[in-house]
Structure formats: structure tokens, C-alpha cells
Design a protein that fits this description.
It contains ten helices and no strands. It has about 170 residues and is mostly helical.
Length: about 170
């Protein structure tokens, strides 16, 4: 079972059981921990409950559709805020996590020792590359591409549609 499939399964379990932030704020921690366990994210269960409580207190149970308000929520940073804006609210917002960074490192020979959340140049590049339309599909494609082709270990370079223009491949062939 791939990580992406496990994540989707966990997401479906959570939204199937908890229909709103009020229900999630009162969630069974043991149940949520079991949902997150296959992803190695059991600590996220408690965070999710606390975030739900905060969303109720600060925003009346409605998830903000504004970057500045989203990052006021404890545990929500630049990536999560932009992912929410893009995937939930269909707003144009770049995403840049370690997986996207890996693609940029390999394809563009991007170099940085900074973690993605603190790498302003990475975020600038992600923003420059973000198309003016179909940005939701583009961001989802980056995530899928990093999970299925340009993986951390054993990338599928021979099956990659970018094979002929990828700097990573050129370096491997040297």
C-alpha cells in the first residue's frame, strides 16, 4: 500500500466519521491515532483535535479562506495554508514541501540546505512555475509525481516523462 493511498484512506475514514469541526473537536483520540498510525503520524491525531477546537473558538467552526487567518491556527504553516487555499478553496497558491523540493532539485538542479518551510527561494520558484489556470491539477500532479515517479528512494527515471530534459538523469549518466 503506497503512502498516498494510505493517506487517502485515512482522510476518507476521518471525513466519514466526523462531518464538521465540532464533531472533530470531540473526537476519540485513540481512534484518530489508529487512523494516523499507518502513516507514522500518530502525534497528528491530538493536533487535529486541538486545531479543530481552535477553529471553533477563533473562527466559529469555519475554516478561513484567507492565508493570514489560516496561519494563525497553531500547527498551520505556509504549506498547509496554501494547500487548503488551493485544494479546498480552489485559489491560486503554490505548494512546496520536501517532495516538491526534491523534484526541483533533480529537474532544475535547485540547491538549498534550508527546510522547505524556511526556503523563500523554493517558494518563489514554486510560485513562478505555478500556472495561471489549472493550478489545482498542477499542484496535485506535483504531489503524485513525487509519490509515484520521482520518489525519494529508487526514482523511476526510466519511466519518467521528463527523462530527456532532467538534470538528475544527465548527472547519473556522467
Amino acid at each position: 500500500m503506497t503512502g498516498a493511498w494510505k493517506a487517502e484512506e485515512g482522510y476518507n475514514q476521518i471525513i466519514g466519521k466526523y462531518r464538521n469541526f465540532e464533531e472533530l473537536a470531540d473526537a476519540d483520540l485513540t481512534y484518530l491515532s489508529e487512523v494516523f498510525e499507518p502513516l507514522g503520524l500518530t502525534s497528528r491525531a491530538e493536533n487535529l483535535i486541538e486545531m479543530s477546537q481552535e477553529i471553533i473558538e477563533k473562527f466559529g467552526g469555519e475554516l478561513p479562506a484567507n492565508f493570514e487567518k489560516l496561519i494563525e491556527i497553531n500547527g498551520v504553516g505556509r504549506y498547509t495554508a496554501n494547500a487548503i487555499l488551493c485544494f479546498s478553496y480552489k485559489k491560486k497558491a503554490p505548494i512546496a514541501d520536501r517532495n516538491v523540493k526534491r523534484i526541483f532539485e533533480r529537474y532544475f538542479n535547485y540547491e538549498s540546505d534550508k527546510p522547505p518551510y524556511a526556503d523563500n527561494e523554493l517558494w518563489k520558484l514554486a510560485d513562478i512555475l505555478l500556472p495561471s489556470d489549472n493550478y489545482v491539477e498542477y499542484n496535485l500532479s506535483l504531489l503524485d509525481f513525487s509519490a509515484k515517479v520521482c520518489t525519494y528512494t529508487k526514482p523511476s527515471c526510466n519511466n519518467c516523462p521528463l527523462f530527456d530534459s532532467c538534470i538528475y538523469i544527465m548527472k547519473l549518466e556522467e
